[in-house]
Amino acid sequence: MNEKLFCPSCRKENEYTTKERFFSNGTKHIEAICVTCNKWIKFLQQVGAEEFRMPYGKHKGKTLRGIKEEDREYLEWFVENSESLKIIKRIKEVLESYEMSQMF
Ligand SMILES: [Zn+2]
């Protein structure tokens, strides 16, 4: 890991190590930990929503990332027509991260 981050705890700009953390809502975050003081610096990215697999329907078993590339309209349709709020929330995260990445 060559990239450097500013650590708010020891106030040094130094190297960091990464650790995976799983939250109770099923999402996975990658967090950056300072190599000097071993404190949390920040979350680098959230990968949980994209890796979530559809439990049923036309794209059963595929990840949201894969469906987004293959059949984005389906995800938009699902958000409008499904009552599964947990899945809708994840789909929205995936669609939003797509839109944000298009801005850069
Ligand atoms: Zn530190």
Fold and architecture overview:
Helix 2 packs across helix 3. This protein folds into 2 domains: 4-46, no CATH class; 48-103. The chain is built from 3 helices and 4 strands, in the order ββββααα. The protein has 104 residues and is an alpha+beta fold. It has a 4-stranded antiparallel sheet, with no helix packed on it. The two termini are 23 Å apart. The chain is elongated, with a radius of gyration of 17 Å. The structure holds zinc ion. Zinc ion (ZN) binds next to loops.
Topology:
Layout: E1 4-6, E2 13-22, E3 28-34, E4 40-46, H1 48-51, H2 64-81, H3 85-103
Antiparallel strand pairs: 1-2, 2-3, 3-4
Helix pairs in contact: 2-3
The structure holds zinc ion.
Based on the model shown, name its key terms.
single chain, 104 residues, 2 domains, four-stranded antiparallel β-sheet, 3 helices, binds zinc ion
Portion in strands = 25-35%
Beta-strand segment tally: 4
Bound molecules: zinc ion
Shape: elongated
- In N-to-C order, the SSE pattern is EEEEHHH
Distance, first to last CA: 23 Å
Number of domains: 2
From the alpha carbons, calculate the radius of gyration and give it in angstroms: 17 Å
Biggest beta sheet attributes: 4 strands, antiparallel
Q: Which strands sit side by side, in order, in the main sheet?
A: 1-2-3-4
Helix content: 25-40%
The structure class reads alpha+beta
Uncertain segments of ≥5 residues (pLDDT<50)?
none
Number of helices, where a helix is a run of at least 4 consecutive DSSP H or I residues? 3
